[in-house]
Design goal:
It comes from Bacillus mesophilus. This protein has about 625 residues and is of the alpha+beta class. The protein has 19 helices and 34 strands.
């Protein structure tokens, strides 16, 4: 059976027994560092596997509880599915317990278990007081109804009950998406002698396979997953929810930092400006004012920046959600829906948290219009977000669309199936459905073109594609034209496109004069004037003369002796018949002149025309007949 993977976080105040509880659950001591052993506190994130049976496997993350190590704590819980909030029975709720609780709420973690540890150190009445205090603190939070389990980690009391509760909660938790684009925020970077650079992190989404090519963001360095380990055991793949170490090729430790992100596709945005939905803690020490310096914790990254409000100048403790923007000092990797925490640089405190509404924030004007725009952006369904983007962009390639909207590929596919009248994906591009009527618009353009230029065989395909490239990709327009010609909905001759029933013809308002002009050309036979002179005598405008010249030549109605002079096909046939009947297998210029009775001024261009048409072939001073008719 297929295994299911989740991440469980241990949170709570320092010295409340998180590491001891983790060891009791997993038999793994997550305090690895010498300093952690000496000081008996967790400094870095600790990880341990927890096999819950029935193909359910959890990665337990033991996060530091000390205030000084709050950034490690945030990095640890940012990717978890279930939290165990640890409270020691001998101390009860402490400041870090409250801050961890705020952080967990802001990060959108919905499921939690309260573990009351060290119950052996106090009597039963005091344990009840701690339980009551904890329930009071949880009122009004998503953890209000969380189960509460009494634990003595050293004696193993409550451990089995806790495991069963963890299993029960995870079975009701939706798994992370293992089929989408791979994303792993890096929380540890180190070098292994003889192996090279290794990174660790929790797979947020997708799957990584040994040997897979990857991209490091935001630096965009290319690398490859040379080897994988899941909880210190070799593996050929790691999926969403698993803790994994990757041995990377082509990079050094200096090329990477905590907060960098490994991805397999460029579906994720690298940005320094994000639109956010922000909620604040209830007990702000100071008001958060316009452009207040902040530290953003998102995934495993920590970046300084400032808050920009658009409908107010400060927030002084109200807990309502505010739509605003973060402008960061460094680029981060994020997508819509990612959760974050904001802390003030000084005095140090958690001021709030929320989620990313748009990772592609722009500079907006202060005012209600921007606030309303952000609200619309926040509430928008996937289909609405796509439509809003396409109204601005007209069309967009699938890769960029996924970046701009922060949609997953399966979400995009679902929208194209359920909302066929809104958007359509063609040739890798997404367009508004109104562009599906492109062929009808092409027909309208061609109809107007034929009316204006009835003697042309059609419109140049490149010109036609260019007309529609402002609201549709050229590749797609070209594909529509090709499919239409193959289906006989349009006709194509060389590079020219025309309506299927169109036949080039003389303009109706000039046809009589053109017929008169051609009669004159027939009458003059080989003693012709320039083609333009015939047109002027007939009273034709220059643009009509120019088009007529190309039209008649294309139709084989005239043949040019040189750049200016032309003879009609009728003249060419008559002279060809006369010359061929009065000569044998070949002839020279004198024979041709005597036969046709024309001056050398017209004779030389005429016989050269015969050579050009392949009717004769010149051999020194004579012409040899190849054939005696026009093809």
């Amino acid at each position: 059976m297929e295994k299911h993977y989740y991440t469980v976080g241990m949170a709570g105040h320092i010295d409340h027994g998180k590491t001891t509880l983790t060891k009791a659950l997993t038999n793994v001591d997550t305090d690895r560092l010498k300093e952690e052993k000496e000081r008996q506190i967790s400094i870095e994130l600790g990880f341990a596997p927890l096999d819950l049976g029935d193909n359910l496997v959890a990665s337990v993350i033991d996060v530091p509880g000390h205030e000084r190590f709050i950034r490690q704590m945030i990095a640890g819980v940012a990717g978890i599915d279930l939290v165990i909030l640890v409270v020691a029975a001998d101390e009860g709720v402490m400041p870090q317990t409250k801050e961890h609780l705020d952080i967990l709420s802001f990060l959108g973690i919905k499921k939690g278990i309260v573990a009351v540890t060290k119950i052996d150190k106090v009597d039963a009445d005091f344990v009840e007081l701690v339980q009551d205090e904890m329930r009071e603190q949880l009122q009004g939070t998503v953890f209000a109804d969380s189960p509460m389990i009494l634990i003595d980690s050293l004696k193993g009391l409550g451990i089995d009950e806790l495991k069963l509760q963890i299993k029960d909660d995870l079975l009701q938790t939706e798994e992370r998406n293992a089929n989408g684009a791979f994303r792993l925020p890096i929380d540890q970077v180190f070098t292994v002698k003889g192996q090279g650079t290794v990174v660790r992190g929790t797979v947020y989404e997708g799957t990584v396979i040994e040997g897979q090519s990857l991209l490091i963001l935001p630096s965009r360095k290319e690398t490859k997953a040379r080897q994988l380990q899941v909880h210190h055991k070799p593996a050929d793949r790691a999926v969403a929810g698993q803790r994994v170490a990757l041995n990377l090729s082509n990079v050094t430790k200096e090329d990477l930092d905590r907060g960098d992100v490994l991805v397999d596709k460029e579906h994720f945005v690298v940005t320094d400006t994000i639109d956010i939905a922000l909620s604040f803690v209830d007990s702000l020490k100071l008001a958060v004012k316009q452009r207040t310096p902040i530290k953003l914790h998102l995934g495993t990254s920590e970046v300084m920046g400032k808050i920009v409000f658009f409908d107010r100048n400060e927030v002084a403790g109200d807990s309502e959600e505010v739509l605003c923007q973060l402008r960061l000092n460094e680029e981060i990797v994020t997508k819509r829906g990612d959760r974050f925490i904001l802390r003030r640089a000084t005095p140090v405190e958690t001021i709030g948290g929320g989620w990313v509404v748009d990772p592609n924030g722009q500079k907006y004007k202060f005012g209600q219009a921007t606030a309303e725009m952000l609200h619309k952006k926040k509430e928008g369904t996937p289909a609405q977000r796509i439509v809003d983007l396409l109204i601005d962009k007209k069309y967009i390639h699938k890769k960029e669309l996924l970046q701009q909207t922060s949609l997953k590929e399966d979400q995009l596919e679902e929208v194209t199936v359920t909302e066929p009248d809104i958007i359509e994906v063609l040739q890798g591009y997404t367009l508004l459905s109104e562009q599906k009527g492109l062929l009808n618009k092409v027909r309208d353009v061609l109809s107007s073109f034929h009316d204006k230029h009835p003697m042309r065989i059609g419109m140049n395909k490149a010109e036609l594609v260019g007309l529609f490239s402002h609201n549709a990709p050229k590749e797609w327009v070209g594909n529509v034209l090709d499919q239409a010609t193959q289906a006989n909905e349009l006709q194509k001759q060389e590079q020219f496109i025309a309506l299927v029933n169109f036949e080039p013809s003389f303009p109706s308002n000039w046809s009589k004069r053109i017929e008169t002009m051609l009669q004159e050309l027939d009458n003059d036979q080989l003693n012709v004037k320039t083609f333009e002179e015939y047109g002027k005598v007939a009273g034709l405008p220059k643009d009509v003369i120019d088009e007529l010249k190309h039209f008649l030549r294309q139709k084989g109605r005239i043949y040019f002796l040189d750049e200016k002079n032309a003879v009609s096909r009728l003249t060419l046939e008559l002279l060809l018949e006369k010359l061929s009947s009065h000569t044998d297998e070949s002839f020279d210029l004198k024979q041709a002149k005597d036969c046709l009775d024309v001056s050398r001024k017209y004779l030389i261009p005429f016989v050269e025309l015969l050579d050009t048409l392949g009717i004769t072939k010149r051999q020194d001073q004579i012409r040899v007949w190849v054939r005696k008719t026009i093809d």
